[in-house]
Design a protein that fits this description.
Elements lengths: L22 H16 L4 E3 L9 E4 L1 H4 L5 E11 L3 E8 L2 E11 L1 E7 L5 E7 L1 H13 L10 H16 L1
Antiparallel strand pairs: 1-2, 2-3, 3-6, 4-5, 6-7
The chain binds cobalt (II) ion.
Length: about 160
């Protein structure tokens, strides 16, 4: 699947709430999973591949789990005050990596493939990747969360990605 890059309007929209899971949704998840692994990502949101749907995949490598995590209609309901400051990259922003402040712990409410609502706590890398992907579904890039000065320095590179 084509990865939409910084500058694409679909990456600035708040994605649509998913009300039902069809075979098309499952196919989309399979295709997104293949795309994520092919491009060495550890997370991917549906709008990054051009679908306006509130859905993301968190790679098992980020979770130290045997399975990828599919999060549907995710909503972070608690953020810890304690933060971590670690480097992030994004398949939609090639060749830019920067350290981003994120909550160390979050509580996520999401739905699984049966649209069953699940509430779960995540810590460290899983919490970071989930915050990054949930941001995507709300039209936010990790670069939006950098300091004013850092953003200014990156502006030229970002505009080049947007133009290409
Ligand atoms: Co990203």
């Amino acid at each position: 699947m084509k990865i939409y890059k910084y500058g694409s309007q679909i990456l600035r929209n708040k994605c649509q709430f998913i009300k039902s899971i069809s075979s098309d949704t499952k196919q989309l998840i399979d295709d997104m999973t293949d795309t994520m692994y092919k491009d060495d990502g550890i997370g991917l949101s549906a709008n990054q591949v051009g679908f306006d749907l509130s859905l993301a995949i968190i790679g098992k490598h980020a979770l130290e789990s045997e399975n990828d995590l599919i999060i549907i209609n995710p909503k972070i309901i608690e953020y810890s005050d304690e933060k971590t400051f670690e480097e992030e990259g994004c398949l939609s922003i090639p060749d830019i990596r920067e350290k981003v402040n994120r909550s160390k712990e979050i509580v996520l409410e999401y739905q699984d493939l049966n649209l069953k609502t699940i509430t779960k706590k995540f810590v460290d890398l899983p919490a970071r990747v989930i915050q990054h992907e949930t941001d995507h579904l709300n039209g936010i890039f990790f670069t939006d969360r950098l300091s004013f000065v850092k953003k200014k320095l990156l502006n030229k590179k970002l505009n080049q990605i947007a133009k290409s």
